[in-house]
Amino acid sequence: MNGWESKRHGELRRSLFVWNIHIDEAHRGRGLGRETMLLAENEARRRGLSYIALEVSGANTTARRLYGSLGYRETIVFLEKQISQARSDQNRARSDESL
């Protein structure tokens, strides 16, 4: 775990926020991610916090499966769309034509 911040306010509650976890590829599949999250839970308890929050890429199915097995639930979903400038220029031209 690269670090964490304590007492981040999210979803209207104080929580320990897990900032970044990286398990080296050579050490994956040994339960180190699970152990790290259990360590984070103990740290949250030590600090008197009742919640842990984190962000995970939607494409990271392995991590999402781990967090789900530990009782985490999704609370926020971010969406993005890549747009091209060429189409934007076309839409602007059409908009100008309708004026």
Descriptive terms for the model:
99 residues; alpha+beta; Aminopeptidase; three-stranded mixed beta sheet; 3 helices; 38% helix; elongated
Largest sheet: 3 strands, mixed
CATH topology: Aminopeptidase
Helicity level:
25-40%
Beta strands, count: 3
> Considering the protein shown, what is the CATH homologous superfamily?
Gcn5-related N-acetyltransferase (GNAT)
Radius of gyration: 20 Å
Number of helices: 3
Portion in beta strands: 15-25%
- Return the CATH class: Alpha Beta
- Unreliable segments of 5+ consecutive residues: none
Order of H and E elements: EEHEHH
What structural class do the secondary elements suggest? alpha+beta
Distance between the termini: 56 Å
List the domain count as a whole number. Answer: 1
Shape: elongated
The chain-level mean pLDDT equals 84
Task: Please explain how this structure is put together.
The structure is a single chain. By secondary structure, the chain is α+β, with helices and mostly antiparallel strands. It has three helices and three strands. The chain has one domain: Aminopeptidase. It has helices at residues 32-46, 61-69, 85-98, and strands at residues 3-10, 13-20, 52-54. Strand 2, helix 1 (32-46) and strand 3 form a beta-alpha-beta unit. 8% of the residues are buried.
Concise synopsis of the structure shown:
With 99 residues, this protein is α+β, with helices and mostly antiparallel strands.
What's the arrangement of secondary structure elements?
Elements: E1 3-10, E2 13-20, H1 32-46, E3 52-54, H2 61-69, H3 85-98
Parallel strand pairs: 2-3
Antiparallel strand pairs: 1-2
